[in-house]
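Consortium newsletter contribution from the modelling node. Members have asked for a concrete example of what our holo predictions look like. Here is one, prepared for the S-adenosylmethionine complex that several groups have been discussing at recent meetings.
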Amino acid sequence: MKNSSNNRQILPVNRTKEQARRFYDRMSRLYDYISGPFERKYAFRALELLDIMEGETILEIGFGTGHCLKKIAASVGETGKAYGIDISPGMLRVTKRRLEKAKLLDRVELNCGDATSLPYDTNSMDGVFVAFTLELFDTPEIPIVLEEVKRILKPGGRIAVAAMSKKAGESLIVRLYERVHNRWPEYADCRPIFLEESIHEAGYQIKSSQTVKLLGLPLEIVVALNN
Ligand SMILES: C[S@@+](CC[C@H](N)C(=O)[O-])C[C@H]1O[C@@H](n2cnc3c(N)ncnc32)[C@H](O)[C@@H]1O
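And here is the predicted structure:
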């Protein structure tokens, strides 16, 4: 596993997977009111960059309440297939209802699990989408998730990721946010990471990379290809 010199600047994640699961189960009914309105616009922007075509096979990791997965299911059409994996059974229930209501559930397979080990075949996906979830994995796990994604992507397959970013350096707002994260990690659980660098180090070819601001905090949106 490669180890970036920047890794030591990324805050560690101290909660267990069980704590993460319980947290998102509790959040699942409220999530759309609390985080959704802020992050969704950028998640949709990242999803557009994945440029999904009809007939494709696409996985979303950490689908939350399913807004992006619903769009993915619509984009792959009747001939494609969408997959979603999330650690929280509560999020899965909310997403299942959303897909049922939209009459799209028949083209989606939902799984409950930890994305460090993906229950999908090697070379099986055209694309993988991850929004505001990669930064929840502890630093040594980020390359493991990206390696798993590489395994399941077809050659030339693509990944689009949106995540809180440390790329812009130690700005005041990032330092303030990290203090909040350190004090209340169970609530401000995302923490800024070096997204483009992590994806590049995992052996992908970067196709596009942009940094935007969410309530003043930098976000990276990166699209990359599996070489
Ligand atoms: C911050 S939410 C983002 C949800 C959605 N992508 C969005 O943009 O609204 C993170 C999601 O990742 C899921 N998650 C957290 N840790 C996970 C893990 N180890 N494996 C899979 N999913 C995980 C949570 O249950 C939650 O639904």
